[in-house]
Amino acid sequence: MGRVRKAVLPVAGLGTRVLPGTKTVPKELLNVVDRPILSYIVEEGRKAGIEHFVFVTGRNKAAIEDYFDHAVELEAQLEAKGKTELLEQLRAELPKAGEMSFVRQMQPLGLGHAVWCARDVIGNDPFAVILPDVIVDAEPNCLAQLADAFERTGANIIGVEQVPENETHKYGIVAPAERDGRLVKMSGMVEKPKPGTSPSNLAISGRYILTPQIFEELARHEPGAGGEIQLTDAMARLMARQAFYAYEYEGATYDCGDKIGLLRANVALALKRPDLGEAARAAVTAALAGAV
Ligand code: G1P
Questions:
Q1: Structure confidence by residue, pLDDT tens digits, 1-19
Q2: Which residues line ligand 1 (CB under 6 A)?
Q3: Which of 37, 128, 171, 220 is deepest in the core (most CB within 10 A)?
Q4: Helix or strand holding residue 21 (H, E)
């Protein structure tokens, strides 16, 4: 198995949990502290060795493609005003030529369908899937931890975290068979189990490394939970012929597609910033004092 060089980022979701802002701004471009969620995600991928990002977009998501391009007028203004630090910050995250591809998912048929839309760009290599509304704060980062586990096992790996029993119905949940430290050999998985039927509290949280055979399973286009074509169902079928591991990564997970998750990410990441931490702490403390 080769090293993981490509990642699929499904960014076609509507962001209904954080409306009305997402009426005109893709949720992946909402700021956390002072840069878009996607900026954290692409940084994580690059640090984990990803060399090609495949965005699966939808209507009203053109701003994502623009974000990863020059803003000619803005850059000229910043240059004229001598704001070189800001200008360098903007330019630093621009892609190298050919580092990003954009594929359109024309109907919202589910996460599995979105990943399948990237099949021709991914080709016949193992690849990562990164859900771009989930920020994981970790060192080494979450995808790098998974890539390391993939190099050891050569098998499909899914990042998981423990969630409270009463929240398992919101996630894909894995059924563990044997555990070796953070690596868990799986015996099954289920998308959004009904309350009381969950095989564990290990939830799939948005980072995957998969073999290209997943596309054969996705091509069946079978709808699952919620009537959507689910990635979890395709993975469960692929388990009949390939090994799957869950990896309980180290780090803090923030679901930024959710109001409180987005708030938690903003507060936690601002508090950790050397340049903003002190001011953030004072602001949070004052807000708490005012709330009681
Ligand atoms: C998706 C996946 C699910 C995973 C979740 C993590 O669900 O289908 O397996 O646990 O992301 O956020 P969604 O949140 O899109 O319904």
A1: 678 999 999 999 888 888 9
A2: 111, 131, 134, 171-172, 191, 203-206, 230-232, 255
A3: 128
A4: none
164's CB contacts (< 8 A; 6+ apart) are: 201
Residues with Cβ < 8 Å from 190, sequence gap 6 or more? Answer: 172, 173, 175, 197, 198, 199, 232, 236
DSSP E strands: which ranges in 18-171? 31-32, 35-36, 52-57, 100-104, 127-130, 134-137, 156-162
Pocket test for ligand 1, best of 204, 214, 233, 235 (most atoms within 8 A of CB): 204
Segment 153-178, tens digit of pLDDT: 999 999 999 999 999 999 999 999 99
The pair of structure tokens assigned to 275 is 């340049």
**Residue 106 is inside which H or E element, if any?**
none
Q: CATH number of the domain at 79, please.
A: 3.90.550.10
Query: Atom 1 in ligand 1: which residue has the minimum CA distance?
Result: 171
Which structural domain, as residue segments, surrounds residue 286? 258-292
Residue 1 belongs to some domain of the structure: no
